[in-house]
Amino acid sequence: MTPLPRTVAATAALVCAAAGTAAGPAPAPAAAGTSASATLPDRVMAGYLHTSFANGSGWVDLADVPDEWDIIHLAFAEPTSPTSGRLEFSLCPRQECPGVPDKAEFISQIRDAQARGKKVVLSVGGARGQVSLETTAARDAFAESASAIIDEYGLDGLDVDFEGHSLYLDDGDTDFRSPTTPVIVNLIDALRALSDRYGPDFVLTMAPETFFVQLGYAHYGSGPWGGADPRAGAYLPVIHALRDRLTLLHVQHYNSGPIVGLDDRYHTMGSADFHVAMADMVLQGFPVAGDASRVFPPLDPGQVAIGLPASPLAGNGHTSAPEVQAAWDCLTTGAHCPDYAPRGTYPGLRGLMSWSINWDRYNSDEFATEHGAHIGS
User: What one-character-per-residue DSSP string does 187-216 give?
Assistant: First the structure.
């Protein structure tokens, strides 16, 4: 991979070019089907590997990651401050993670995983890593520092795991197709710049919560009269703007309140019903905030995975293996459907994501073993 320029000025020119501003015209978007998803198996398992902290589940070497995992998200790179845009990534301190390798050995493990066909990507954000790109300077710092980490460790791409208050919509920003809020526009431009620099093999994944995606069916931003949560549906413009470069969207079907599905009923996490209803929304598309003139188009099934906790200790909304597999079968074959009837059948559904590989190892690799075999990863 060719590294991005190491100066903010050069990075700014790159980002402006990607955005089509005065620095030059925007590059032609990648052709459909040329994203990094083409280099991955037809079915994938994506899992987060705790690399900067222990989180109670213990350190797991890359060498010990079970073979079922196709995409390994290194969690997490975090900003130096919420609005700086400048990312830092470091391995878990040895006193917190006994057995953590030194940096050179860790990079060697990355190379070995890649040689086995795995994609190893940098995950940015997480529950503690708020990233608000409020200015173009923060945008440029984000692109520059992300590329520096990717190059230093020889990684395959970037995962956007923005939570909390990282993304929101300003009052008056009501159309996901043409966003105006700086934190949204700057993120889109930075991700385009990275994708353009690294080319079609760049892995770009996103792990939003349902609040930022599916909730957009009922509410978008602060609403027509103001006063609502401005974060509602705030990932939609980012997903839409980057759908030609997106490898995988794996919405977190956990840590979620009840969400209204396409049947206009509430669905609650932890069941096959919830997973089918939430996946069906991004696979079918939906009118944003009920506006038939502003329909979020469906994603290709090959760009969609279902995000799940690996075990009851990993997060709220854990779903038993039989329920997960019933949801998978319903979506891909039409069999074993719960109360919610999906609007279509999606044999090309790409796979499953889990938080996390560490928690799954702690739970005797149940998630990898049970689901890898079932979906054919």
Answer: HHHHHHHHHHHH-TT-EEEE--BGGGTGGG
Both tokens assigned to 320: 């038993």
State the helix-helix crossing angle for 103-115 and 136-153, rounded to 10 degrees: 80
Count Cβ atoms below 10 Å from residue 376 Cβ, excluding itself.
Answer: 10
The answer to whether the CB of 299 falls within 8 A of the CB of 350 is no
Exposed, middle or buried by CB within 10 Å (0-12, 13-18, 19+), for 90?
exposed
Are the CB atoms for 5 and 171 separated by under 8 Å? no
Please give the structure tokens belonging to residue 348: 């090309």
| Residue 37 CB contacts under 8 Å (≥ 6 apart), including other chains | 247, 248, 302, 303, 350
Judged by phi (left if over 0) then psi (alpha if -120 to 50, else beta), residue 227 lies in: left
Token digits of residue 224 = 């027509």
Going by DSSP bridges, is the β-strand pair 295-296/286-287 parallel, antiparallel, or unpaired? antiparallel
Distance CA 121, CA 117 (A): 13
- Token pair, residue 171, equals 């009052």
Distances (CA, A) of 71 to 44, 126, 156: 7, 17, 10
Per-residue pLDDT of the chain (377 residues; tens, 9 = 90+): 333 333 333 444 455 444 443 333 333 333 333 345 548 999 999 999 999 998 889 999 999 999 999 999 999 999 999 999 999 999 999 999 999 999 999 999 999 999 999 999 999 998 777 999 999 999 999 999 999 999 999 999 999 999 889 999 999 999 999 999 999 999 999 999 999 999 999 999 999 999 999 999 999 999 988 889 999 999 999 999 999 999 999 999 999 999 999 999 999 999 999 999 999 999 999 999 999 999 999 999 999 999 999 999 999 999 999 999 999 999 999 999 999 999 999 999 999 999 999 999 999 999 999 999 999 97
CA distance 275 to 331: 9
Task: Evaluate whether 165 touches 130 at the Cβ level (below 8 Å).
Answer: yes
Q: How many other CB atoms sit within 10 Å of the CB of residue 300?
A: 17
- Which sequence positions are flagged as catalytic? 163
